[in-house]
Write a structure and sequence with these properties.
With 323 residues, the protein is α/β, with parallel strands linked by helices. The chain has helices spanning 15-20, 58-70, 98-109, 140-157, 171-181, 202-208, 228-240, 254-263, 274-285, 291-305, 315-321; strands at residues 31-38, 44-47, 50-57, 75-81, 114-119, 132-134, 137-139, 161-164, 188-195, 244-248, 268-272, 309-312. The strands form two sheets. The chain has an eight-stranded parallel barrel, surrounded by nine helices. A two-stranded antiparallel ribbon has the order 6-7. The longest helix is centred in the middle third of the chain and has 18 residues, at 140-157.
Length: 323
Amino acid sequence: MSYPQTRMRRLRRSEALRSMVRETRLSRSDLILPCFVVEGSGVREPIASMPFVFRHSVDQLVPLAKSVADVGVPAVILFGIPARKDARGTGADAADGIVQRAVAALKGQVPDLVVITDVCLCEYTDHGHCGIVEGAHVVNDASVERLAAAALSHARAGADIVAPSDMMDGRVGAIRGQLDAHGFEDVAILAYAAKFASAYYGPFREAAESAPAFGDRRSYQMDPPNRREALREMRLDLEEGADVLMVKPALPYLDVLVEARRSFDVPLAAYHVSGEYAMIHAAAERGWLDGERAMEEALIAIKRAGADWILSYAAKEIAERLP
């Protein structure tokens, strides 16, 4: 039928009607809040480039986690910032490391909250790269050994899910092997499977103090123009034992997320990264757009493209506003 019999506006006349035909719904159970953990006590340090985001010491992280659980967000992902860094990132797998202590505290005091840990070396190395450096080159296999050790230490501390974000070849299989060999078969792996060498990570690098001291990460993170390669990466991670696949960043790579949803019948995550978050706040501060609506619209777009889980610094504020 054609106009005027077909009038698409008929079901848009009121919020009640719009709600009845709404195709995509954002729910609290979709959301994961990234958290930065630092040494010390009583620390709640603002991050200049990320409004309303803070670095927390463990004692301050616990009440944040309780408030996150109270509003219905089911999970957090932890990024640790140690007091000391070195070339091998020895703090990454230390039994008393900052993330390990944070995991133990959260599982002890907020037991129903799902605790995910970022597994990478960039926050722990003095050169800021995601692996072991020899000369000016980030070497793969030695890095994988360190990453597997870090993941195992997180599991021993009580992590529910470990999330390797380094993009070294073979790290998912190595982590799965270490976890299984030590009795942690039930600890899941969320693989940063398609992580692009993006310009949108700047605020995160300030927050985690992880900017590379030399060069960049383009030799191991993905080249932004490549979509087919992203699907190969995701397929390989599944074959190595990943339980959940992630696309990062989210909004500039929604086409990759759509293709992943068509290709893989597994849970998919997408990371609404620091630059995406910061841009919305910066524009809102200048009165150029409605920040609350823009943030929610961004997350809806990610969900509509196929994400089951959305990592976002706005997770708590969005959850508080959801009906």
